[in-house]
Design brief:
With about 260 residues, the protein is mainly alpha-helical. It is about 75% helix and about 5% strand. The protein has a two-stranded antiparallel sheet.
Length: about 260
């Protein structure tokens, strides 16, 4: 489980950076002909992706129960693998294959050696989440991305307020109780970036204007979420707040796009 962690301004900065990465990957001409899923315009794809999320959660909870001492190491090794793969794709698209490989290797080694530095950690999350979201968003239609978004908004709400398994699960993975965390430090899950970024980038092939506007809506949603966290001082499901703002902004952008020449 990857998440942004640090002071609010730092978390927001890396969140924006990840959205920029996702927009670039969806816009990049090298993505033509590449699809993370088949038939990304079918609603069943959204349901399948949602079921994968549930399956991953069940596996993670089971692993935390039976392999608690090993889980954090396994997750970190998986993060390094995905960091190299996604950063290689990102840097290669910007700098070419050779320089892309060098920078991807450098970033992965930095993450491995500077494991406890939040800046390096947040950059790792931004690259992994941003690139993955851009590739997947490019593969889905906006309608399917919206359905996936709604399903995960419901799940996020249920996991925090009904089953209440999300907060203990994150604490177990992080090895730190919420009460032990400094008051000025916030945590935002990678999924709270991936899902909004998938939705935003799904518009890229139809209207870059709407894709960018939707991403700005996600940023406004995060600002609203951080404000609510500061006000209520208790764990909150971020996706419902981000989604409410982002979907509203996206709808407005879609309307404005019909007025543009």
């Amino acid at each position: 489980m990857i998440l942004f962690k640090g002071k609010q301004c730092s978390v927001l900065l890396f969140y924006v950076l990840a959205l920029i990465f996702s927009l670039w990957m969806a816009y990049w001409s090298g993505m033509e002909g590449i699809s993370a899923v088949e038939e990304g315009d079918k609603p069943t794809v959204a349901v399948e992706l949602f079921l994968y999320v549930l399956l991953f959660t069940i596996i993670l909870i089971a692993a935390l129960y039976f392999l608690q001492d090993w889980v954090r190491t396994i997750i970190f090794l998986l993060e390094l693998f995905f960091l190299f793969a996604t950063s290689l794709m990102l840097f290669s698209s910007l700098l070419g294959d050779t320089k892309g490989f060098i920078w991807a290797l450098f970033l992965t080694l930095a993450r491995a050696l500077l494991r406890n530095f939040d800046v390096v950690r947040n950059l790792s999350v931004a690259v992994i989440a941003g690139v993955a979201a851009g590739v997947l968003g490019h593969s889905l239609s906006p309608a399917v991305a919206l359905l996936f978004y709604v399903l995960l908004v419901v799940y996020d709400f249920v996991s925090v307020f009904v089953t209440k398994h999300m907060v203990p699960m994150v604490e177990s993975v992080e090895g730190m109780k919420r009460s032990e965390k400094p008051s000025d430090v916030v945590a935002l899950g990678g999924g709270d970036l991936v899902v909004p970024a998938i939705f935003a980038t799904s518009f890229m092939k139809y209207s870059p204007f709407v894709a960018v506007a939707s991403s700005l809506g996600a940023v406004l949603g995060v600002l609203f979420t951080l404000w609510m966290l500061k006000k209520l001082k208790s764990p909150l499901p971020a996706l419902p707040y981000i989604g409410a703002v982002q979907i509203t902004v996206t709808a407005l952008a879609l309307f404005l796009s019909t007025l543009l020449p």
